[in-house]
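Subject: sequence -> structure tokens, single chain

Hey, anyone have a minute? Need the predicted structure for the following. Not urgent.
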Amino acid sequence: MLRVMLAEDMHIVRAAIVALLDLEEDIRVVADVASGDEIMRVARAYRPDVAIIDIDLPVVDGITAARMIHQELPETRTLILTSLGRPGTLRKALTAKVGGFIMKDAPPGELTEAIRTVAAGRRYIDGQLALAAWDSGECPLTERELEVLRIAASGSGVEEIAATLFLTTGTVRNYLASAVSKLNARNRIDAIRIAHASDWL
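Reply:
Had a minute. Here:
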């Protein structure tokens, strides 16, 4: 019997997943939580074989929680559940040593297959997302370019960015122009959009 823990903040979604998994003869949901800060306490108490974790949880996000589980309870495999199929998010999840990554709109049979695969110590990655991550490649921006874009994304102008980073306004403009060029963006706003969509910011 595979013992599963579920972390999902949307009550209806959580109840639906629990009901779905209860139909399986070899899977039993031993605990469910609605917030990321509850995950480690409950995981320590129940020692599940697989923790299914929503990526967008309050207090502690799913990837951070998965990393904590891997460090403290390596025998518990983690499966990230998300509605955000961004390649950058997948790369972050893999870096956190998650066992699997599945979309919330996947067919029910895919979730149970993912649980069994991850419990067996193998990886389970949504096929379309894996291809998108493969195609998207690494971030072409330097750390400083990302830093400038990150501050620009909060609405700061060139002068504010320069003051924050102790740079000249000319240097900030150069970093912004370089980021726009490297991302083949139309302008600074487009560069921020592309970087956000790729999960680089």
